[in-house]
Amino acid sequence: MAASRLPRHLRIGLIVLTVGSAIALGLFVDVIGRVQEMVREKDPETSNPFTPAAAPLYEQNDPPMPVKLFFPSVKEDVVLSSEEQTIFRSAGLTNRARQILQKLLDGPKTPTLYPSVPKDTKLQEVFVDDTGMAYVDFSSTISANHPGGMLSEQATVYSIVNSLVYNLPEIRQVKILVGGAEKETLAGHCLLLPLAMDLSITDVAPREQVNNAD
């Protein structure tokens, strides 16, 4: 009864206010829904919770394989010293190469040796062609975060080259790529040409000298 006594213009105003509130509430709910949808689209774990894991680099029954890894040394007469580590003799050559390179990225275990690759560098791709050329692609961090200097760059490059060629005879030369592309130098000094193993800057004798000594 009280509502019917309200002036006509007030009743119209209440109706308009009620309708406007309902529309505003609907728009608000719609905006919240859109925002939640955008968040779900940007969250990879929500949008794709079944991302497959990377394939293993070796099988459980693959035998262990001793390798020599080359790292910068405190010794004054050599650039690189060797460290004995172990990988697994997986069937695929590139998987064995990846294991060696991952060991290099993890760094040495010997206190007198130093990491050869800048921290946070990622191994992106490895490919070995029919001529024995290994193409190794690292993230751009290997170049952007490198301290530079001729000896430092040489240590990084030949740590990679020597560790691959010495342990994997199928690989004869190594071409280092940065961020999926060719670069002239690593950080301004050492040329990133296809390179063969160079043990003259290490404390490891060439295999021919070892065989002759026996």
Shape descriptor reads globular
Beta-strand percentage range: 15-25%
- Average pLDDT metric: 82
Radius of gyration: 31 Å
Helix and strand composition category: alpha+beta
The succession of helices and strands, N to C, reads HHEEHEEHHEH
Question: In terms of per-residue confidence, which ranges show pLDDT below 50 for 5 or more consecutive residues?
Answer: 31-36, 38-53, 209-214
Spatial order of the strands forming the largest sheet? 3-4-5
Number of domains: 2
Fraction of helical residues:
25-40%
Total DSSP helices: 6
* Intertermini distance: 116 Å
Number of β-strand runs: 5
Q: Largest sheet, described in full? A: 3 strands, mixed
Compile the SSE list and pairings:
Layout: H1 8-42, H2 44-47, E1 64-72, E2 80-88, H3 93-106, E3 123-128, E4 133-138, H4 141-144, H5 150-167, E5 173-178, H6 207-213
Summary tags:
214 residues; alpha+beta; 2 domains; three-stranded mixed sheet; two-stranded antiparallel ribbon; 5 strands; globular; disordered C terminus
Offer a quick outline of the entry:
The protein has six helices and five strands, in the order H-H-E-E-H-E-E-H-H-E-H. The chain has helices at residues 8-42, 44-47, 93-106, 141-144, 150-167, 207-213; strands spanning 64-72, 80-88, 123-128, 133-138, 173-178.
Describe the protein's architecture and organization.
With 214 residues, the protein is of the alpha+beta class. It has 2 domains: 45 residues; 144 residues, no CATH class. It is 38% helix and 17% strand. It is built from 6 helices and 5 strands. The protein has a 3-stranded mixed sheet with strand order 3-4-5. Strands 1-2 form a two-stranded antiparallel sheet. Strand 1 and strand 2 form a beta hairpin. The C terminus is likely disordered.
